Amino acid sequence: xxxxxxxxxxxxxxxxxxxxxxxxxxxxxxxxxxxxxxxxxxxxxxxxxxxxxxxxxxxxxxxxxxxxxxxxxxxxxxxxxxxxxxxxxxxxxxxxxxxxxxxxxxxxxxxxxxxxxxxxxxxxxxxxxxxxxxxxxxxxxxxxxxxxxxxxxxxxxxxxxxxxxxxxxxxxxxxxxxxxxxxxxxxxxxxxxxxxxxxxxxxxxxxxxxxxxxxxxxxxxxxxxxxxxxxxxxxxxxxxxxxxxxxxxxxxxxxxxxxxxxxxxxxxxxxxxxxxxxxxxxxxxxxxxxxxxxxxxxxxxxxxxxxxxxxxxxxxxxxxxxxxxxxxxxxxxxxxxxxxxxx
Length: 343
What we know:
Blueprint: H1 3-26, H2 31-49, H3 53-76, H4 87-154, H5 158-187, E1 196-199, H6 200-211, E2 218-222, E3 227-230, H7 232-248, E4 255-262, E5 266-273, E6 278-279, E7 291-292, H8 300-311, E8 315-320, E9 326-333
Parallel strand pairs: 2-4
Antiparallel strand pairs: 1-3, 4-5, 5-9, 6-7, 8-9
Helix pairs in contact: 1-2, 2-3, 2-4, 3-4, 4-5, 5-8, 6-7, 7-8
């Protein structure tokens, strides 16, 4: 609550309490009602504002003194029994109990905010680390690869050239790994998403056209025009990761099917292959995503897909885990949720 509004609320309550006490001189029969209204209204205002300890002590002392004096006069005049004066300390104790609960809740909320802020900061630092490492790794990898190729061209021994082939292959793996780390960090960066209409059918046809010359697979395509709202470049990167995974775990001549269809709430995109299939990892990392049942991998491809799809408000599922193939499905809503800061 703004400071000016807090002052107005407090001044309004003071006037209300004063009027309640003055009303007793006009209608003495309302003594019990006015007495309790003062205490109840004070509790409400404190619950809304949360006074400082000094103001709480001063207000409590003044209200106790005023209401006690007024009630004492009524008792002295014979309008009430002396036992009625016990209500003053009892109401003060009830108010103090409420103050204790309010302060305890405020402390708990402050601790929760502190934990959330630390978690948010840790997540930001982690994303910054991933992004920085991904950028910084590219230059030395590129330089090392160039020098390795230069040395390879100068070596007369076939065995030495084969050894450098291993070095070049490992450098290529590092380059792909840094690229995927950067893509994973970008997938969670909500502020960089470029929302707009996306034709999933056109996206699948374009993806199949790019991958068909690079891999000797039996490509099956069922891609009618299905429109959803999303970031086309991020969805394309997610689809590429699924297709790359399918190519990696299939052999020449195996079938890879790309399909999309509209649903009541949005659309689904299926990437199905006739490869070695998936099996749940024996060492589950808590992600709920399967690892390959045979060839090793980092798992960053599926992590990128999951990050992109979840940012669109959808989900990634392994529909089947047959021994002779796998089917991965991206479920996308027709419209993504409103862009909000990450918790």
